[in-house]
Write a structure and sequence with these properties.
350 residues, alpha+beta, Hypothetical protein af1432, 2 domains, four-stranded mixed sheet, 11 helices, 15% strand, globular
Length: 350
């Protein structure tokens, strides 16, 4: 592939290094298709640069327009270019663990990169419905980036918008995408790409997202305090099992661990928020694993928490592992089971 200006991130470098044969044919006679896919991605990234920088203030202004008191304003942690870079880095770690015969094609990497670039820009209009509110903005921007094929635009949007939220009150958003399909005569795995983006986004909430603002609205402080404590996130391969686990390492002083924050109207200490967020990440691991298998197997999350107490040289440490255990709680229900029973017990002809 031709060298692009964008080579500073490992996921982008994977895309640059992938063979041109993986990409759809560019029709030379069509003026909208004269740019290489690397050039199209660069254009999208460049156009979105200024938007990423405004996401935080845009969300704050949208919250202010709702006439809420100052202490109820939402001040997002880092959602700009830095966050996008971290999500790409986490996605690259996941992609790098896929076996050679199942690796993402250049076309899939292009789609994934574009989806990562746009996945959070909806926050500029407010946190509510941010997973889908950016559709019109992306569709208006896409032609300037020579992303003109309707199916390609729609797939990029779909993969980006299922990183959270719900579809018709269904929180299993990824299932609404194809497992495998053909687009521009190339095979694409939308569910796999969506699961990579979603879990990479979940793993990106570390210390790089924390902002230090003394006058930050009370309701937002807990999110930044949490990010500040999470100093290490690793995807580690268990060589004997050909599987992986996530390692989360937290560090804080006892004073910070015990500090009380308001979380949706309830006062809790920071250490409780850390435990809650670890549980949420495990929930996301179980969910995304459904779509990452068989390409990537992540079996568990290992958590290490170090708390420094006053007048103590050594930290107090608590370690634990989150994984599936016991008999599944959710009842298994076959779709249209009554229709099957009625059909198979009917005396009539089919």
């Amino acid at each position: 592939m031709n060298e692009s200006e964008t080579t500073n991130n490992l996921l982008e470098q994977m895309f640059i290094d992938a063979p041109d044969s993986d990409l759809p044919q560019i029709i030379a006679t069509n003026a909208d298709n004269t740019k290489t896919f690397a050039e199209r991605y660069d254009l999208l990234k460049t156009h979105l640069g200024s938007i990423h920088d405004k996401v935080g203030i845009g969300a704050l202004l949208a919250s202010a327009k709702e006439d809420v008191p100052y202490n109820a304003l939402i001040h997002l942690n880092q959602h700009g270019k830095g966050h996008v870079e971290v999500v790409m880095s986490r996605a690259a770690e996941l992609v790098g663990e896929i076996c050679e015969t199942q690796r993402l094609s250049a076309f899939e990497l292009f789609i994934l990169l574009c989806a990562i670039q746009i996945h959070d820009i909806g926050n500029i209009s407010g946190r509510k419905d941010h997973t889908t509110s950016f559709q019109n903005d992306f569709y208006e921007l896409a032609p300037a980036c020579f992303i003109t094929d309707t199916g390609l635009k729609e797939m990029i949007f779909q993969i980006a918008c299922v990183h959270g939220g719900s579809i018709n009150d269904d929180r299993d958003t990824i299932r609404h995408l194809y497992d495998k399909t053909k687009l521009l005569n190339r095979y694409v795995r939308p569910q796999l790409l969506a699961a990579i983006l979603r879990f990479a986004d979940e793993l990106a909430d570390n210390y790089t997202r924390a902002l230090e603002l003394d006058d930050m609205p009370e309701i937002s402080k807990i999110f930044h305090a949490y990010s500040e404590t999470l100093h290490t996130v690793d995807i580690i391969k268990n060589e004997q099992e050909a599987a992986h686990h996530i390692l989360l390492r937290y560090y804080m002083t006892q004073e910070k661990a015990a500090r009380i924050y308001n979380r949706e109207g309830v006062d809790i200490p920071l250490i409780e928020e850390i435990l809650n967020r670890a549980e949420k990440m495990e929930q996301e691991r179980r969910y995304c694993t459904r779509y990452l298998i068989p390409y990537i197997v992540i079996k568990e999350i290992k958590v290490e928490i170090d708390v420094q107490f006053p007048k103590e040289i050594s930290v107090r440490n608590r370690n634990f592992t989150l994984r599936e255990s016991g008999y599944p709680d959710s009842k298994v229900t076959i779709e249209k089971r009554d229709d099957i029973i009625n059909e198979m017990t009917s005396k009539g002809n089919c």
